Amino acid sequence: MKILGGITRQAFLNEYWQKKPLLIRQAFADYESPISPDELAGLACEDYIQSRLVLEQGEDGPWELRHGPFSDDDFTRLPETHWTLLVQAVDHYVPEITCLLDEFDFIPNWRVDDVMISFASEQGSVGPHLDSYDVFLLQSYGRRHWQINQDSYSEDDFIAGPELRILAEFEAEQDWILEPGDMLYLPPGVAHHGVALEDCMTISIGFRAPSQKELLSAYTHHCNEFAKPRYYTDPDLELQESIGEITAKQIRDVRRLLLSAISDDAAFSNWFGRFITENPADCGEYQAEDISEEEFQQQFEQDGHLNRSGNIRMSYIEEDETISFFYAGNQLSLAYEQRELISYLCANHYLDYAAIMELTDDACVIKLLHRLYSEGCLFFDE
Ligand code: SIN
Ligand code: CO
Fold this sequence. Notes:
The chain is an alpha+beta fold. 27% of the residues lie in helices and 25% in strands. The chain has 11 helices and 17 strands. The strands form 4 sheets. The protein has an 8-stranded antiparallel β-sheet, covered by helices on one side. The longest helix has 15 residues, at 212-226. The chain is globular. The site of cobalt (II) ion has 3 residues, from loops.
């Protein structure tokens, strides 16, 4: 599948990624939505799934936001037009949507956030707004009119309100009508407004970028738990004219002490690998059956494939002679020979028996897969 149209993956990264929008007509040719509007509404009724309804003319005024879980009644009471249902992290629950992520094989998988799916009634939208992350908006059902504007906006440009940050004024610079299979890439901060021309569904493949604040807070938490205390030292202290002064050298030494907390390459990269593959908070664990390694191998061979659970993140870091494999916040140190296998596991949610056996004839493979299976990271189709 050529989801970038006529553009190479390298050209996309050079010219568009985090830089400018790109419309790709028929990124997914003859696309048929892997999920129906009714199935999406069904997910929005589950209490473990995050969902929202946005009503342009709500009972409590314009742009009313309601939080799920919803009931059938909530849906039957909705107006005919001008509303949108948004369901978060559908990739965690619907294997076809999980596998859609594998098509985005030109962006490191740790940058993926989740796949949100919206259903909009005619004229439905969530209002003109901007997001702080990269997103691919794949039209999966019906048509949507997208308008964008690449101006920069300030705090005063938004309608006041705690959650929906809608632009008070929005003028389109470019616009397109997207049909099923068309996809629009938007870098962070580009204002966009998508209005449904009829009942329509849009799949948002959203990326994440950790903020400095988030990293600092998570790393500090990690240090509090694990690092040995290290104190400021000053054996070279010089007599000061005034004891009230904090000198430039002392400030430098304090900063150096802080920076030394992240200066050990191995410790830092191991922490990051675990941190960035941690399970999203909302996800329920998949319960695996307790089967032996032999039984596992037999079933894998017989089914011909295995699936990776949608909520399990996997990435790796190459060391000199080993591979640090991270999954769901755990870390395993593996022999370098396992690199191909690990790379395959990280890039695919549908694990093909023959493809895996071709990669390696090592007996450790089944051991590793059985372990991941027993921990609920992999599952067999029903
Ligand atoms: C939508 O699907 O309605 C909204 C997606 C977005 O604007 O990010
Ligand atoms: Co948006």
